[in-house]
Backbone:
């Protein structure tokens, strides 16, 4: 079933859906206990919720496919993650609240260090701090000149990451990256993937030449690496598809960006998990769909820090009563993908999920864990169908056919 | 997900994948014990492997669909078995190492017996021996004359089975079979399924008329039955799709043929299961993908010989330490389809599977059997996605999206 099939069935009502997304929640066993991070964590509230709900396992993209955060989140919100291909540049632009227009071309920037021979010695410029990043963006913004037909914008993200946007007519994103993706190599020359992109390729090459001169006096960030060229793209939003009035509560730019692309309001950053849960409570009357994004489960998994990931899961568990106390009609607890600490990165393993509502058909899952969820009533399904299930359990989908 | 989606994610490395395929492994209970062949077999090594791996059930083609060996194997290697429609004739040609060209039309031949009224009395000419088959092929090869524009080739397979290839311009495989598929009927006249195939239909009718005369002095094999017309077809091979250097270790022509069509090197026949496992060991350094095909599980299932199928499974189990001792990065144990002895044929039942690797997420399966695999962490998935999982667990797939 195409996940857009449900759009024609949507009916509006006042029920409320909460998505509690622990990024990278799925894991793998480590050490002697043979338990995953989630199985190791003491999660009395999540376990109690699992007992009175339906559980299962979600495949973000497909069997064996390790998703990036972009496709994994599109899937959570009911978008086919393969058909919904979004360039990294566009996600960056959305994530820093860049005021987009349809004439824009976006690209993801790494500030980097090159040596006298032009070889990249550090793809992240020593993970340069955000303030230095901002200073460099301002310097570039003042000096880059691409002529009268193309406007240039550069804005910092965190640490070594930044956004560049070009605004002009007929700009193309069909270009190869300049980022060589490894130190010890020279930056690549972006090339047009088809004739229509030739002019844009020349503009980018001009931009890179000017950058080299402008940043030549910098000690660390003396070059930029470009990737993820992406033109502005209009999505069918959650309000348009499902008639929802959605709010995103997320700390990290990219997730805020995805939420904005999908038509969600964005809550101001709160600085903590506790703050995010509190924000859910104070906003609860004003929206009917809530995307609460917990980042550290993923970051700590990527760091290979099994024990700290366990602790974060336990912290989230401790806040669960504040969520269930709001009595949402549907509460979904899951992740966008797995980030096993033993792999120090995203993985293809399916993601455990709890879906709690009055209309859940009970299964026999007693604990929220990967092994337990194998036997869940949802069984193992593509993540992109989760949204339809949430809407159904919230009474927001009508009958199909007579 | 289209199984070809993973092709764009492939990265090359030195990890090794072993596919141990017990043809027709899946079964059904027989007699009082209510256990399947696999559940009856004493398989301590497979059970131990199941305990430290992830298990599940595979659907070769789709719910309720009983596959032939061709589609079932294409599925195992990551090809959509419905989109990848391969004529039986092409599989036969590949299986006997026929030197194919793009101008070739292949067909599967049964040597058969007809009576004075032209009615088929035995579709297999009394399961005539291979030597007699060879003599008849040579006789046909010497006498058939299809004119200057069409070359004729005929070559024996085992017992009553043979291959015919026609070589010429604009030959079509859009023809109906001549094999009536049952004794007591006359051979059918192959007909063109569209106007472009008219000329080929006439050539085939001419061939059949000549055959009747040429073989009229034969006691048993006095006619041929044709089916599975297929033109030459170029596949995207495993080396092309996945960057693999694959080796097939298989005794039977058709599996060797499929492997060859998919770009595998073919190990010389060894004559025994023990020989096949030994071949895996001696070839292990030179390849990174190994297809080890065990035929008797299927043949004995087709014979309805429950106990002998059990014994073969136990024999394979006894060789498992020789495989695990090689420390492949990924070891998959499964079948192409089920062949329950009580049904004396292939069936649509899903096939139990073990996938063992360092990155397996454990489930609670303690034994390798159909019932146990229901609760496996892979759950029940289409066979065509097994290859993506094997590649992922071997670290051969990169992340999708940022």
Residues:
């Amino acid at each position: 079933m195409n996940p857009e099939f449900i759009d024609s069935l949507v009916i509006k009502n006042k029920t409320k859906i909460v998505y509690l997304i622990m990024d990278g929640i799925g894991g793998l066993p480590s050490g002697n206990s043979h338990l995953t991070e989630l199985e190791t964590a003491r999660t009395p509230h999540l376990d109690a919720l699992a007992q009175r709900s339906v559980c299962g396992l979600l495949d973000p993209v497909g069997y064996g496919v390790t998703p990036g955060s972009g496709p994994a989140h599109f899937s959570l919100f009911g978008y086919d993650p393969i058909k919904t291909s979004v360039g990294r540049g566009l996600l960056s632009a959305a994530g820093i609240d860049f005021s987009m227009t349809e004439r824009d071309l976006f690209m993801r920037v790494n500030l980097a260090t090159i040596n006298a021979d032009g070889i990249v010695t550090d793809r992240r410029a020593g993970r340069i701090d955000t303030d230095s990043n901002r200073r460099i963006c301002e310097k570039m913004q003042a000096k880059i000149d691409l002529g009268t037909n193309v406007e240039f914008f550069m804005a910092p993200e965190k640490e070594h990451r930044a956004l560049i946007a070009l605004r002009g007519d007929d700009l193309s994103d069909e270009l190869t990256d300049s980022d060589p993706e490894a130190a010890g190599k020279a930056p690549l020359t972006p090339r047009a993937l088809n004739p229509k992109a030739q002019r844009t390729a020349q503009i980018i090459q001009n931009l890179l030449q000017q950058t080299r001169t402008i940043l030549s006096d910098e000690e660390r960030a003396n070059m930029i690496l470009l990737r993820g060229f992406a033109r502005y793209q209009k999505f069918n939003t959650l309000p348009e598809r499902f008639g929802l009035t959605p709010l995103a509560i997320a700390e990290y730019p990219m997730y805020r960006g995805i939420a904005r692309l999908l038509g969600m309001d964005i809550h101001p950053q709160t600085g903590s998990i506790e703050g995010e849960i509190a924000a859910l409570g104070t906003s609860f009357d004003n929206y009917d769909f809530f995307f609460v994004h917990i980042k550290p489960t993923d970051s700590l998994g990527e760091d290979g820090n099994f024990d700290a990931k366990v602790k974060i899961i336990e912290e989230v568990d401790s806040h669960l009563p504040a969520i269930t106390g709001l009595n949402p009609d549907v509460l979904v607890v899951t992740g966008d993908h797995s980030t096993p600490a033993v792999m120090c990165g995203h993985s293809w393993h399916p993601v455990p999920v709890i879906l709690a509502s009055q209309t859940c058909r009970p299964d026999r899952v007693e604990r929220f864990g990967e092994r337990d969820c194998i036997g869940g009533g949802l069984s193992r399904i593509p993540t992109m169908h989760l949204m339809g299930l949430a809407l159904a359990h919230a009474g927001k989908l009508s009958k199909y056919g007579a």
User: Anything to note?
Assistant: The mean pLDDT of chain B is 96. The longest strand of chain B covers residues 104-114. Chain B touches chain A through 28 residues (CB under 8 Å).
